[in-house]
Write a structure and sequence with these properties.
The structure holds two protein chains of two kinds. The mean pLDDT of chain A is 88. A six-stranded mixed β-sheet of chain A has the order 6-7-8-3-9-10, sandwiched between helices. In chain A, a hairpin with a 2-residue loop joins β4 (58-63) and β5. Helix content of chain A is 35%, strand content 28%. Chain A contains ten helices and 14 strands. Chain A has helices at residues 43-50, 72-78, 94-104, 113-123, 136-148, 166-181, 216-221, 235-242, 267-280, 293-306, and strands spanning 5-14, 17-27, 32-36, 58-63, 66-67, 79-82, 154-157, 186-190, 201-206, 209-214, 225-231, 248-254, 257-263, 285-289. The longest helix of chain A is centred in the middle third of the chain and has 16 residues, at 166-181. Chain B is an alpha/beta fold. Chain B folds into two domains: 2-40 and 168-360, no CATH class; 47-149, abc type-2 transporter like fold (3-Layer(aba) Sandwich), CATH 3.40.1710. In chain B, α2 (19-39) packs across α9. Residues 151-156 of chain B have low confidence and may be disordered. A four-stranded mixed β-sheet of chain B has the order 2-1-3-4, with helices on both faces. Chain B has 14 helices and four strands. Classes of the chains: A alpha/beta, B alpha/beta. Chain A binds chain B through residues 48, 51-55, 73, 76-77, 79, 81, 83, 85-92, 96, 100-101, 103-106, 146, and chain B through 2-3, 6, 10, 13-14, 17-18, 200-205, 207-211, 364-365.
Chain lengths: 307, 366
Amino acid sequence: MQPFIKADEITKTYGQTLALDRVSFEVNQNEIFGFIGPDGAGKSTLFQIMTTLLIPDSGSGSINELDIAKNYKEIRSIIGYMPGRFSLYQDLTVAENLKFYANIFGTTIKANYELIKNIYDLLEPFSKRKAGDLSGGMKQKLALCCALIHQPKALFLDEPTTGVDPVSRTEFWDNLTQIKHLGIPIVVSTPYMDEAIRCDRVALIHKGRILKMDTPQKIIAEFSATVLSLSNIDKHQAREAIKNLEGIESIFAFGDSLHITVSKDNSSIIDNLRSTLSSIIPDYKLSEITPDFEDCFLQLMKEEQNV
Amino acid sequence: MRNVLLLIQKEFKQIFRNKAMLAIMFIMPMIQLLILSNAADLELKRVYFAWEDADKSDLSTSLLSKFENNPLFYLTHYSDNQEQNDTQLGNNKADVIISIPNDFERDLTNKIPTTIQLRINAIDGSAGGLIATYSNKIINEFYSDELLKVKATKRIVEARYLYNPALNYKTFMLPGILVILVTVIGLLLTALNIAREKEIGTIEQINVTPIKKHQFILGKLLPMLAIGIGEFILGMAIARLIFHIPVVGNPLVQLLFLVVYLCVMLGIGLLISTRVQTQQQAMFIAFFILMVFMFLSGLFSSIENMPAWGQMIANLIPISYFIRDTRSILLKGAGLKELYPDLIILSIYAVVVNTVAVLAYKKTTD
């Protein structure tokens, strides 16, 4: 089966800056595909190209076999897009915004109510409130409703959970999973590593390049190193003491602790680490932990820089 | 068409919801119209004159009493000392010195041409001109009376003021001020409105919908056109009811000119909005253009008095045409027969400006 969304070697530069460097990916139906990367990685540019708002310097893409350059008009009526910035009319009410976007696509709220029902039920009590007066989480739910109201064949959500509280974020991802089960593929970007696990497949993107693309589980499983958590220490002092030790691949600060990555099956390195630490910081705590997504991303980024 | 209606509906909802903006759009211009029309009043209420009489004859005294009996003129100083009189002029005690030469009576009785000198404070040029005109009128009347007595046959020029017989300055200024206000609203609102969609980001969401470029533009321009027309009608009502400005011409012809002219202004606003990213940028560009429009429009200074290059620009900017045409229609009752060349020129402007603006407008992000 042809992948529903396809991008092939997409490149885009802004003046001297390379925003996207030969980015290729494919998304199948019934899939949530996540772009994970820090701010400025090129996620928004990629979304604008895929939604026909920007023209790439080179490369091509298609949605449901419609070319993003040639068939941009058809594409605009079959996709739902949520820009990174809240882009609904703040001076219109919740209901008016939804009605406006439904009508623009030649449909009504009633005709597609089933699709948005789960999300809109939460918004209903505020339907007469101006969109600009909603909370961050509510705004995102409304934007999702507006992107869904014309029954799109694919959804593009650019950082939909940025600036949203943790509870609303969880609810939002629950909504996305429901939508996916209706057969609408979703391309979503996020700077939050913990959301990666909610995607079916993810692409780690940094400085316009895709570092890795796979299921989140596989990415973690393939992580070829041991991660140690070092706590109950002065972070700066500890880092200075161990940063030049043999076999230490990376050290990243995680809250109050340091995550230290060492190559797998190397007990001598860990022994060396313990003895160095005990001489300076006697009551340190060191334990091996399961690497999470953030560890993987930081490690990949570091490898990238070393190349 | 359905999409355009949806957009227009949305636009009006937004406009009428924003109470502050409504006030800015409708109440402020009307207050300005009331204030400006009264403030920009160059009518001459009082002329103070000094009498410099070298002749001191019966005839010269008779002329003096003519001036004194005129409700406009007030004698402030009587002296034959030229220097003293000039001081009066210098410290603003007198606006004009009327100087009667020696042998004034003798020459006049013998029908020898004689000259009366007027020395006028012309710091305010138009006031100076009016003083000269009024003084000449009195002197001419006096001449013709006296010459008739001595059976002279010399024909005296007589001026009659047509279309604005009372020389009411408001009648002349108000249509012009109204045009300026409509221009500001039309041009600025359009430029700001679209720039606002860009600045807030709402345009990004609109751009991924099937709304076509021409639909979006029509959905923006038609409400602005309606507001511009409403503004003008409201202004005309004030002009008619409060200032009693005559409406001699056909209101429909006036409306036709207004619509064509507004299309030009909305097109300029649209063009500005395609070139900017923020409302602030739009505001500054619009302001610059409006300044040029205002000062070269012939409203505050007559185009005929401008240097050649100024006249050239004045003849290029559409507002000069519309001010001139509005005055002609309202005060003179001119119709399409007299004004069609201007209508053609304005229409060409409207087509060109809007074509350029539509071509410059892009649905993709830069």
